[in-house]
Design brief:
With about 260 residues, this protein is of the alpha/beta class. The chain has one domain (about 25-250): HUPs (Rossmann fold, 3-Layer(aba) Sandwich), CATH 3.40.50. Helix content is about 40%, strand content about 20%. The protein is built from 11 helices and 10 strands. The chain has helices spanning about 10-20, 35-50, 65-75, 80-85, 95-110, 120-130, 140-150, 185-195, 205-215, 215-220, 245-250; strands at about 25, 50-60, 115-120, 155, 160-165, 170-175, 200, 225, 235, 240. Helix 4 crosses helix 5. The longest helix is centred in the N-terminal third of the chain and has 14 residues, at about 35-50.
Length: about 260
């Protein structure tokens, strides 16, 4: 009796169509001049759902678990505004365990928290990151980076069988999409149009924080800084420890020992 071996009849193109089923969450004005207008409309529709929308930005080249943890952390920052909008006492009056429990509740809801991610265009990454770790950057083109980010999900805290999107919409900023030259110029133009409820900023992004401080339009948006606290990690790799794209590139090049 021979082995039952047959060629799989389903093609890669069909699987790809399923894999890229979240492409409607990607808004790229480089390919579609109406992309930002459509994103603004989506953002406005979330207001009708009583959602809290957070916006953040970054390169996200060589997406890894630490990236995913950071993005979920930024999304969770919206729980504070949701709580303050619905309860008489202030978020900061809660004990740490009570705040964590509310974040758990907020992240278990399908549409209570929303996250918009603006990713640096390829030229912007090349200007800012090229040569870091001895490599040509970006490693991945913008469309690949956006697709990987849009596909991130997490397990619902209240339902282990349900997975929810980390990122609800992805767009682009930097000199790759409009010719202003500054890597964040188009981000600064887009933020007042999107009117996020919260702007999540990595606390070492001094250029963004300085721009917010001097621009009245940007200063209207509540900002929550996300810190890389010593001893706290979203993910620790068994070999590298703290993960970063630079560390990954170095290890691939054989420059980092096990």
């Amino acid at each position: 009796m021979g082995a039952n071996i047959r060629r799989n009849a389903v093609g890669a193109n069909f699987i790809s169509s399923i894999q890229h089923g979240h492409d409607d969450a990607i808004f790229n004005p480089t390919n579609d001049p109406t992309a930002h207008e459509r994103l603004v409309e989506v953002r406005q529709s979330w207001d009708g759902e009583q959602s809290v929308t957070t916006l953040t930005s970054g390169v996200y080249d060589g997406l890894h678990p630490d990236h995913a943890g950071y993005l979920l952390h930024v999304k969770a920052a919206g729980a504070e505004l949701h709580y303050n909008a619905n309860y008489s006492n202030d978020w900061h009056d809660l004990k740490e365990g009570e705040r964590e429990e509310y974040v758990r509740y907020a992240l278990s809801q399908t549409a209570l928290l929303r996250l918009i991610l603006s990713i640096d265009g390829d030229t912007s990454v090349s200007v800012r990151k090229n040569g870091k770790g001895g490599s040509v950057r970006p490693v991945y083109g913008w469309n690949t980076r956006a697709t990987m980010a849009a596909g991130l999900s997490y397990r619902s805290p209240d339902n282990p069988l349900q997975r929810l999107p980390v990122v609800d919409a992805v767009t682009i900023h930097g000199p790759d999409d409009f010719p202003e030259g500054h890597p964040h110029h188009t981000l600064y133009s887009l933020v007042p149009r999107l009117r996020p409820d919260v702007w999540g900023v990595y606390d070492e992004s001094t250029d963004i924080l300085e721009a917010i401080d001097i621009d009245p339009e940007l200063a209207r948006i509540p900002v929550r800084t996300i810190s890389d606290d010593p001893g706290q990690r979203y993910w620790v790799d068994d070999i590298m420890g703290k993960i970063s794209t630079t560390a990954i590139v170095k290890r691939i090049r054989g420059e980092q020992s096990a």
